[in-house]
Amino acid sequence: xRKSIVLLCVFTLFCVLPSFSQxxxxxxxxPAPVPSGxxxxxxxxYGAKGDGVQLDxxxxxxxxxxxxxxxxxxxxxxxxxxxxxxxxxxxxxxxxISQGAVxxxxxxxxxxxxxxxxxxxxxxxxxxxGHSHWHNSxxxxxxxxNISILGxxxxxxxxxxxxxxxxxxxxxxxxxxxxLKNCRNVILRDFSVLHGGHFVLLATxxxxxxxxxxxxxxxxxxxxxxxxxxxxxxxxxVNSPWDDAICLKSSFGLGYARATExxxxxxxxxxxxxxxxxxxxxxxxxxxxxxxxxIPAHFTGRIKFGTESNAGGFKNxxxxxxIFESCQGLALETVDxxxxxxxxxxxxxxxxxxxxxxxxxxxxxxRGPEGVPVGKLRRVIISNIVAYDTKPSYCSVIxxxxxxxxxxxxxxxxxxxxTGGGTPEMAAVEPRExxxxxxxxxxxxxxxxxxxxxxxxxxxxxxxxxVQYDGEEARxxxxxxDVKNADFLHVKxxxxxxxxxxxxxxxxNFRSHFTSGVSDTTILKAASARL
Length: 531
Hints:
Helix content: under 10%
């Protein structure tokens, strides 16, 4: 009967498949013999029980080895709970997790492969431990091609760690749900992940990567795309209260600089505002003061790139048609010498944003090999953005550092509605430079504008941009510091009584046209101006 069910499921998925393999002896420790030409390998035929009691990863790995020995195939998980340690992928293999099937990470240090040596990650040399090792994952693969993880089932990282002391679980357990290094032609589609550990997915040096229709409800990062090329992320739902939802990086984990490039992120929902697990069960319980966790939730949950931003950097990135809910805003950063260039962001809605709706940062932390110059952040277009109910402490920030300007930024068709609450003391603040700081909106403290704070920028255009606030406010809408070539076209802001709408400090070549509260004007140079 099971043979017929499996055949029917696979036939439905793939339309036509050759006949199934001859059933092996489940009691054997060696892979069951599989006739030449067979494509489907049921993990239960290799000793897996799926009862949530027996450790099934040895049997799963036997099924993978059998498939690889036949040139590839689909390793099939029927409904059941498969208690597992490290699962080792092979080339030309697809894991298919069927409806009702759960791969559950075991809380047993002996069940996981040890983190492999990496001289570039030892003692946090250029990036942290989690970005420097892949073998200590629930599912991992290195130097592979043509691999897939498919199906509507669930990966439950119950025994995975987030690599923090607060985990209170043994050292040596897995710290990622999926780790991939130096792979190509990879498809991840349709499955869900609960409690994914340090990363649900760490993909480093992966080319031709398709990620589609994943549902991730997790306790740290959703997916980290590091030094990858030709990536498509679409139709994904990510709830990650304690870290980023979708994060692009360019680390030195491979031992050389490699760009993350040619990436599309589209049709995704990201959040950090719901109790872990309640996105998947459909209850969507907002995190409140009574939510019991070892560490406070900080509602991160955003799309971001650049906290690891080595000399490879980022180029040719598009982000479109995404929703941010109860999380931080969009963050584009480069602080370790990498380029960040040729990026477009469009059709984004945001609600209940706890920090800067838009955050662009060029810094000089320079965590990486010596001799690398400060990077560049340039040619960025952000359009068609609505951000509602944004919190008052941090407005949108676009900031380079002295001597290193962000270049050529265009912002158009943007509406930002902040909750207000800015004080005269906040309006008088001169944010610290913090050139070597970890890039986060809070790195500057409270901002002296409620709409946009722009500093160390050469070439910025605001077109059809509107900023408003509720309640009381004492700050200007815009403040520009050390800015060259700024254009305000059809810009609207809600006036604050007795406060200028635009403050200029050391600004060269400022132009405004049809801007509320500001006459059409060209200012060639302003050491200080209040408009």
